[in-house]
Amino acid sequence: MQNFSNALVVIEDVPTIEGISYQPLQPAYLKIQRIWFFILMPSLAVALFLGFYFIEKIQILGVMAGVSLAYVLLALVYWVGEGLSFRHSGYAVREHDILFRSGWWVRSTQLVPFNRVQHVSIEAGMFERRFGLASISVYTAGQDLTVHGITRETAEKIKEFVGKQIKNKETIEEDTTDIETKDNTDEPEIA
Amino acid sequence: MSLKLHNLQEWETPQRQSPAGLFILFIRTCWEIIKQFWIVLLYYVLRGRQENQPFATEWLFWGFFGLSIVITVIKFWFYKFQIKDDHLHIHSGWWKRKHLSIPLASIQSVQIEQGVWQQLFRIAKVSFDSTGSESVEAKIDALSLKKAEALKQILLQESEGELATAGETISKPERKTYRLNDLDTLKLSLSANHFRAFFVLLVFTFKFFDDAGKMLDADQREAMEAYTDQAINALSWVFFVGVFLVVAFISVAVSAFRIFLEYYNFTMTETDKGWRVSHGLLTQKQKVITRSKIQLVTYRANWLRGLLDFWFIDMSITGQDKLKRQAQINVPITNLVDVQQLAEQYLPQAPVREQGERISPAYWGRKALFLSLPVSLLLWGVLYLISGELLIALAVAGVVLAYWLVHLVVWRSKFRWLAQEEGLTVFKGVWGKSYTLLQWQKIQDVSLSQTIYQRQKRLATLKFSTAGGEITLPYLPLATAEMLLNQTLYRIESRQEAWL
């Protein structure tokens, strides 16, 4: 299987995704994740406490101990997982596509070619606005790609760049049917 | 085949639906009102006649009847459509006026549908599939069949940019036709997977016995339970086998009958741009499949159909807007040669047997460890809590786990994928067979993911998304996954190939 030979095109220098340098997310994004941790986990604790207080049927020491242990484990995994996921996450904008990698337990890299993009939008939640951050979503007819934890300026730049690339593609499509040559080594300066 | 086109001017003046459709509109309006006020209606009907309000239920009925008639007439009167300035205009509503305007060029397909009532009144429902999201609401419920056919022709010609003028004749070459005869339809009906219908009916039967018991008073229930216990003790296996067989027979009969009605007189005719499909006994459906809109193609046969060489081709079709409902058209075909011919119109070299690369054996082990085992343990716990029988719960959970493991092992050993010049083919199957074809240019985005285990073993899972569904290649060697991803991206990005 390693000597996979069903080549799509016989071109030696097909650009690769290995070795791409991803731009890290803004540290403030981790702070926002921590704020959510301190909102969600105490809320869950209060809900559990009320549950045990009012429902007599589950006021069993073993059940309470089990649930408490699960709560502590969940909190621990949530906290550590967020940190590790933040360290791994990053985005890269190339000439023809945008990449976002994320995850901790399951690390994934999603890629969207610009010639499949239908529209782009920028969103900023309450905490994101407070820290000057935003998220950019790239919509396709398949799965969408969202890059969180970038500055508003970066999001605007990416949006502008993607818009320009989509326009270029449309112009090329209208003007000529020649196959476009491609060089992914030069990444645009967006950071 | 040639057809005479109708004069466009005929459609320029705003027109209403067929008056024969008033009855159908009335039925639909009644149903809408019932859906809105069903709780109130149920309350009044169940309450029955009260001493101080002797005519409440009757008044409610007449009020409901009158309201339905008024709404029907208003809906009918204010619903108008016309074709003007290269747009199909639909005006509707009285209180809240609505104007829907669809460019004719964006109309991808036109469907004509006839239910039992429509057949009775010789009218049809016409719905449109366009590249915009608004098309979901674009339909004309009641048109005379003749007018519906004429409208369909005009819309399709206009959308193809061929202006229809009076008296103009356009030749429409039609090629191969796939047809199911009555015997084929019967085979199709009987060979379907009836397990779902069987289990639904089985649950319903036991629920019925349970509810019947609850409706009796305490003494009657005791007597019935005592009688049932006696009966079960005496003839337990006969009783259960009998119920089982009756339920099995009814569910197969009902399920087969439903499929027979659905696919009766199935005809699929090849046209320039794709295919025209019509089928159905009570509800006759006509659909137009535009070849370029097909995103993914799967042909599949369950175990029994595999033996009979009877296949289903599923075509995932979509418009440009992802919010639009994605459609899947299922086409029954009676032999693999025809299946291959049809599939090759989407992707050359459509496979008819398993070929290509396998995935890592680690796949089934990891799935078993992290999915099958925990779920089976959970099932064991839940069954034990419900029944209190430790061994029975263990046996049931054990059987589920064993079947699941066999399923995973067989699924993994049969799975094949093959990347070719034009696209990707994937073979899957445990009892049956399923081939999925994907043209490279239909891909919208790609993702590569790795769990901790996969990272240690240098494996990866690759997922291709299209506007009509996804294809996942699990547990590939990392180098292969990366190479496939790079090549796919190069193919999509370096060529300006239309995906719609």
Output the keywords.
heterodimer, A: 191 residues, alpha+beta, PH-domain like, 2 domains, three-stranded antiparallel sheet, 4 helices, elongated, disordered C terminus, B: 500 residues, seven-stranded antiparallel sheet, six-stranded antiparallel sheet, disordered N terminus
Question: Describe it for me?
Answer:
- The complex is a heterodimer of chains A (191) and B (500).
- Chain A has four helices and seven strands; from the N terminus they run βααββββαββα.
- With 191 residues, chain A is α+β, with helices and mostly antiparallel strands.
- Chain A has two domains: 28-86; 90-175, PH-domain like.
- In chain A, β2 and β3 form a beta hairpin.
- Mean pLDDT of chain A is 83; it is low at 1-11 and 176-191.
- Chain B is of the alpha+beta class and 500 residues long.
- Chain B has helices spanning 9-12, 22-47, 56-78, 116-120, 145-159, 182-190, 195-215, 218-263, 303-308, 336-343, 362-387, 390-414, 452-457, 478-494, and strands at residues 2-4, 80-84, 87-92, 98-103, 107-114, 123-130, 139-144, 169-171, 177-179, 267-270, 274-279, 284-290, 294-301, 311-317, 327-333, 416-419, 423-428, 433-439, 443-451, 459-466, 469-477.
- Chain B is built from 14 helices and 21 strands.
- Chains A and B meet through β4 and α4 of A and β19, β21 and α14 of B.
